[in-house]
Amino acid sequence: MVVHAGAVAGADVFTNQREYPLRFGWGGEDLAVLARAGCVLVVVDVLRFSTAVSVAVARGARVWPYRWRDASARGFAVEHGAALAGSRDDPSSRWSLSPARLTAIPAGTRLVLTSPNGATLSARAQELGAAAVIAGCLRNAAAVGGWLAKRIGAGQAVAVIAAGERWPDPSGTPHLGPLRPAVEDLLGAGGIIARTVDAGGLPTSAVSPEARAAMAAFRAAAADLPGELMASASGQELRARGWDDDVLCAAHADADDVVPILRDGAYERSAAGS
């Protein structure tokens, strides 16, 4: 028998995984449910938003996520004394979503970064009043996992959210249609979950079946993350544009010892113990 969630009172039971302190979900729909459940949220958009945030924050930048295709972004950047990232294809834009390019960002840079998935989910998580919002990826999986393990040890629930991609909408506009689960975000989320389990010595009973499945995917792919990301649909899309360096940068597991936490609208390095 198929039960439709909308027909059941308290339908959040289908998605909030309340029995488990370490949880996993996909996209904005799961993010909304898990934010309302009082979780710390980890937004994972490996290609490329959360990787770009990890790289920039590890180098001392501060990053404001902003909704994609929002005409007010430029004014927002001016108001905050920040640079507005543009397209990597635009020679007039010094910074973009490219994590490979952001390895050269100077400490103290203030950057507004837009994207259809990770930035939009970050803004949504903040609006919903999540307990905390972290930008996670393969590059900072160990740092984020260690930080999360301490939160779980203190009794806090954690949800790792794979952003995924979006199909075109019926008019053909990219990124506005239904969710397309993306393997790179599954692997990034699974890597963070695996590092959290390892750092905290968490038993199976503390990890939801959804989170265990993501962790298993990561462990199966861990021996060749560059190959897996390069061969993925999203990786092929970036490679077709000549951006192999972004894919390889994103695949460099545990390269950044940083936990980017969203405070006052911007991602910044989490202070020790915070």
From TrEMBL:
Transmembrane segments: none
Any one GO MF annotation of this record: 2-phosphosulfolactate phosphatase activity
Pfam families: 2-ph_phosp
InterPro entries according to UniProt: ComB-like, ComB-like_sf
Signal sequence range: none
Protein name: Probable 2-phosphosulfolactate phosphatase
